[in-house]
Design a protein that fits this description.
The protein is α/β, with parallel strands linked by helices. It folds into 2 domains: 39-141 and 264-318, Periplasmic binding protein-like II (D-Maltodextrin-Binding Protein, domain 2, 3-Layer(aba) Sandwich), CATH 3.40.190; 142-263 and 325-355, 3-Layer(aba) Sandwich (D-Maltodextrin-Binding Protein, domain 2), CATH 3.40.190. The protein is 34% helix and 15% strand. The strands form 2 sheets. Strands 4, 5, 6, 7, 8, 9 and 10 form a 7-stranded mixed sheet that branches. A 3-stranded parallel sheet has the order 2-1-3. Helix 6 runs parallel beside helix 14. The protein is globular, with a radius of gyration of 20 Å.
Amino acid sequence: MTYTPKFRASRRSVLKGSGAAFIGLTMMPRFAMSEEEKKLNFYNWDTYIGETTLADFNKASGIEVKMDLYADNAELFAKLKEGNPGYDVIIPTNDYVERMIAAGMLDELDKSKIANTANVADAFQDATFDPGRKHSVPYMWGTMGIGYRKSKVKDASSWKAVLDSSENAGRISLLGDGESVIGVTLQYLGHSFNSVVPAEMKAAEELLIKGKKDVKVYADDNGQDLLASGEVDLAMEWNGDIIQVMGEDDDLSYSVPGEGSLLWQDCVCIPKGAPHPENAHAFINYLLDADAGVHIADTIQYATANAAAKAKMDAKYTGNPGIFPPDEVIAKCEASLYSEEKTKLRNESWTRIQAA
């Protein structure tokens, strides 16, 4: 299939069209209903769902989905830390899944109600951050890298282009996510993304403070929009966000720097205190349906963990190295690991960087 953006191609821009015409899925599963009211409260990254997925699920199940949006994992965690205000399904990233399990914030899933877990690729059937996949199912995975304008940027093969060079001063956006920015800076300096070694942390902090003069903006994950509009020429961003706007502008490209990057996995979970747990399981099962998975992946252009969906997609998607990087690129990437010490040190360092 050919991907044609139908709305603002951004994981964080305001979602439109969730009530658009239903797509013609080849299999439209019907769900056995309990006595729960036919409602579901979904807390998600912005535009991180198929354009009509929520409407299609409503048609298949009779369950009406209300979706609220968060900008990052820290906002999600803070929202739920003091108690669930009423959400049934959330999509945290792997290290936050681990953090939320440790804090007792996630319910265990009843896999007997999620038959479509059989569609999940073998590599994602288990996870070190959630042994046995008791609390999560995989959704999408990918990398963080550099989106850039080819006509303006000579070389984006190294993090040097956005962290340690004045060649593109004033034309750079970095993510506003301190955990990730500090992590890839550590990788650029030859250390682990997850390092908490004081000397290594200090070197990364000093480099980021030194480079602040060259950064136009620390973006709330909308670097792809800044790149597309011409406000910046390089943007530290998530791969799918850049790939989406690449579909609208042939002058844009995406690079995973040679020093390595972050390898992330977003997961679908049910938070403690979910008011509609039966509906939540039905929704998760629907997200893992092969045809629903095709629609989601084709819309948002991230790497799906749904093997049944991937098998139905064409080479334009499955053969795109920006979506599915070659093994040698993945080998240089690291997953973010959760620890209280790391979270504390990164937060303190990021505060100093922003205040400098």
